[in-house]
Amino acid sequence: MTKHDRWTEVPTTDELKSRFQPVFDRIAAGAVKRERDRILPHDEIGWLKEAGFTALRVPVEFGGIGASLVQQFDLLIDLATADTNVAQALRSHLALVEDRLVAPRAEGEVWLRRFGKGEIAGNGWTEIGSVKIGDTITKVTPDDQGFRVDGEKYYSTGTIFAEWIDTYATRSDTGAPVIAIIRLDQPGVTIRDDWSGFGQRLTGTGTTTFSGARLEPEGLVPFERRFRYQTAFYQLVLNAVLTGAALAAVRDVAQLVAARKRTFSHGAGGAGGLVRHDAQILQVLGRARAQAYAARATTLEAARAAQRAYETSQGSDRTADDAANVDAELASGAAQSAVVDLALRAVSDVFNALGASSSDTALALDRHWRNARTAASHNPVIYKERILGDHLVNGTEPTFVWQIGAVAS
Question: What CATH number has the domain spanning 139-225?
Fold first, then answer.
């Protein structure tokens, strides 16, 4: 297929992998240079848009591919293996596509057509500083021209690459929480690439400021209509990112071991043996490979639970939908706990297969640990583990929507 070809029916996973792997390989080829020189992946996001990756879940009738959630997360892991930054930069876009896919077709169609053409969305949800927990300073205000948006957001992952911003706000007139989907290319929107974290530095995360930004009517969505398994979905993207970091670390270190000439006199292969034949070194990589494999399998199993939640959202059985959403949230949380542990062990332990030269900044191997550690710090896993235990022992329903903010000291 050429980049302009469109699917006429939903493809198989093998067909999708065949289509996108060349793009992923191209992205992977420049990952180290981008990391060393702090080059944001504008071109790489463009390649994915051009190839149709950003429209994976968009129905074929609207110019997309119509993939299942399992297919999407399988491919997202492949992308994260190429570059975790690029995969996470699409987190909010993929979630907004899911939301508009679940919405009644009359509401979602205008957005699905835009996404089918390659337009993408970034994120504007979190407010930092002295904002009290439960408060939202960003406001949507009706005026004689429609709606205006004012406020400031941080952790605006992916926004710098996007045409739209998926924003959480409250209405100034009613106080109701809403989703505002705001066009980025306008005078009232300012974006700063000021993310200062030690990992995932190329995700376009930073500050977005709204000052009288205009909002089209179709971009104003009551928050209570947001797709119900959104928290599980957002975590699944991070699980895919963590899995990709582990797979990439195993890949990179295996290549270095295969080519390594220097060895240790007291190694298992002896003074004259190549490192690639050292049984202890092979065990290190074999164990890390198993950890990465398990992380992938765990993430895809949780994606199956999210797929069931999508399917029940399209029906009229509220009881079945309630149960599917609980299952999706618990599966995502359980996968998070397992994948965080598996990925962090893998990206750290692989260094045991190399010498001190592996810390050379030219190799940028440290990026795998930094990126995994950063992704693992989102949505604190300790709270998810408590929620899992509370449900198991006491039958307590998991928390679907939560907030962060300041409290009085």
Answer: 2.40.110.10
> Tell me: the pLDDT tens digits for 335-362?
999 999 999 999 999 999 998 988 999 9
Q: What is the CA radius of gyration of the chain?
A: 22
pLDDT tens digit sequence for 65-106: 999 999 999 999 999 999 999 999 999 999 999 999 999 999
**Rounded-to-10 torsion of CA 372, 375, 376, 381:** -170
Task: Compute CA distances 166 → 213, 215, 263, 290, whole Å.
Answer: 13, 11, 52, 37
Range 13-119: architecture per CATH = Orthogonal Bundle (1.10)
Residue 115: burial class (beta carbons within 10 Å; 0-12, 13-18, 19+): buried
Q: How many residues does the structure list for the chain?
A: 409
- Domain coordinates in residue numbering, the chain: 13-119, 139-225, 230-394
CA angle, 380 as apex, 374 and 381 as ends, to 5°? Answer: 100
Per the structure block, which two tokens stand in for 331? 């599966």
Would you state the structure tokens that stand for residue 404, as one six-digit string?
């962060």
Rounded CA gap, 210 and 139, in Å?
Answer: 9
**Measured distance CA(308)–CA(290) in Å, rounded:** 28
Question: Does residue 388 carry a pLDDT above 90?
Answer: yes
pTM for the structure as a whole: 0.96
Q: Tell me the pLDDT tens digit for each residue of 202-240.
A: 999 999 999 999 999 999 999 999 999 999 999 999 999
Listing DSSP states for 276-291 in one string gives: GG-HHHHHHHHHHHHH
- C-alpha dihedral, 39 to 43 to 46 to 50, nearest 10°: -150
Please state the separation of Cα 211 from the chain's center in Å.
28
- The SS3 call for residue 150 is strand
Beta strands in 11-160 (DSSP E): 121-124, 139-143, 146-153
**φ/ψ of residue 189, rounded to 5:** -120, 130
Indicate the CATH number for domain 230-394. Answer: 1.20.140.10
Sign, Cα dihedral of 71, 73, 76, 77: negative
Can 13-119 and 230-394 be said to share one CATH topology? no
Query: CB-based contacts of 231: which residues, under 8 Å, 6+ apart?
Result: 329, 332, 379, 399, 400, 401, 402
Rounded Cα distance, 305 and 324, in Å = 7
Q: Count other C-beta atoms under 10 Å from residue 130's C-beta.
A: 9
